[in-house]
Amino acid sequence: MKYPIGKFTSKGIYSADEIKTDIQIISALPSKFINLMGGWDEEKYNTPYRPGGWTIRQLVHHVADSHINAYTRCRLALTEDNPTIKPYEEQLWAELPDAKTSPVDLSLQLLRYVHLRWVILLRSMDATDLARTYFHPGSQQTFRLDEVIANYAWHSEHHYQHAFQLAARNNWQ
User: Dihedral sign, CA of 101, 103, 107, 108?
Assistant: First the structure.
């Protein structure tokens, strides 16, 4: 239940077709979440997706937080030479009052609009742009933007599957 599609494994460098597919996965996520959760009530949003895991509410707010950061990091990498990005404590962010109590629709709408902007940016990138990098001080690694796109396509499906599989287990269709 923790890794419903397995852990992300980087290939290093990605083909144009792989990038196009990954951007499509990122593009589709807000609609997939909205279509899945459109009729859910507060009880469902407050259900953990796995034992010891976040609630669906925290999960959706996490995805919005994460993807807003990813969008910003891509913009930094495109405008600066291998910038050092600012990590954040996602576990602590998920415990903040807004992540634990805010309506899920707020983050669904954030995702919808951030992804619209992000996808425009991603689709405009050429091979030179995709090879640009940023440095993550938490992991002490430099990431290429083509790898970042692949990682966030994985992240999108990873968290969608958390919600989808919870719904399937509980017959919430």
Answer: positive
